[in-house]
Write a structure and sequence with these properties.
This protein has five helices and eight strands. It has helices at 9-17, 44-51, 72-87, 142-145, 161-169, and strands at residues 2-3, 29-30, 32-34, 96-98, 123-127, 136-140, 151-155, 189-193. The strands form three sheets. It has a three-stranded antiparallel sheet with strand order 3-6-5. The longest helix is centred in the middle third of the chain and has 16 residues, at 72-87. It is globular. Bound molecules: 6-phosphogluconic acid.
Length: 204
């Protein structure tokens, strides 16, 4: 499975940590990472370690983090190599968890950025001007995410109601609303949303 960062997944990961799942059979990857070290407060890996991985008996060899501390292009190449070694072909995740940003971004596929147009790579370094502490992010690409058996968005709160309506019911414009580019070939796309986030949707 591939995890997302941001705030929304933390509660889900903390809940999962209380479950007696077959952790040795689960391999953890990430859909994106900020270009910071694993101990940085902005690290997506760091958040998952605090909320889940540090609380369960999962072998270290099952945790495949993006090395955000590397030079961004090198970090992207490194992760593409990690996935090539693990999957021995194009990565096919059983499950990819995604979030939805207020601007319609998901993973680190931000509006109008170069990563939206990546077709041959599985992971790229994406420059997102104005982001701190680093304008660089590492992200899975659309082709890597859309090859997954199942993709699930986790969206929470009234502050996401407008963008969720735009992404789900609005005109298709992936450059403006990258989350609209998530369309797994398997057709298995699930929106896990709370009532506040869903409050403006026609379909409920
Ligand atoms: C990240 C994420 C990003 C996130 C959205 C939603 O690294 O920030 O992977 O895509 O999922 O920004 O973030 P929140 O859950 O904090 O609203």
């Amino acid at each position: 499975m591939a995890l997302s960062g941001g705030k929304t997944p933390r509660a889900m990961l903390e809940t999962l940590a209380k479950r007696a799942l077959a952790w040795p059979q689960i391999h953890f990857f990430w859909s994106d990472e900020r270009c910071v070290g694993p101990d940085d407060p902005d690290s997506n890996y760091g958040m998952a370690r605090a909320a889940l991985l540090g609380r369960i008996a999962v072998p270290a060899s099952n945790v495949h983090r993006m090395n955000g501390e590397l030079d961004p292009p090198a970090g992207a190449r490194d992760y593409s190599d990690q996935m090539r070694v693990f999957f021995t072909a194009w990565p096919i995740f059983d499950l990819v968890y995604l979030g939805l940003g207020p601007d319609g971004h998901t993973a680190s596929l931000f509006p109008g950025t170069a990563a939206l147009r990546a077709t041959d790579e599985t992971c790229v370094a994406n420059r997102v001007d104005g982001h701190v502490p680093s304008p660089w992010r590492l992200t899975l690409t659309f082709p890597a995410i859309n090859a997954a058996r199942r993709v699930a968005f986790l969206v929470e709160g009234a502050q996401k109601a407008d963008i969720l309506k735009q992404v789900v019911e609005g005109t298709q414009d992936v450059e403006r609303y990258p989350a609209q580019g998530i369309a797994p070939g398997s057709g298995d796309l699930t929106w896990l949303v709370d009532a506040a986030a869903a409050s403006r949707l026609e379909v409920r």
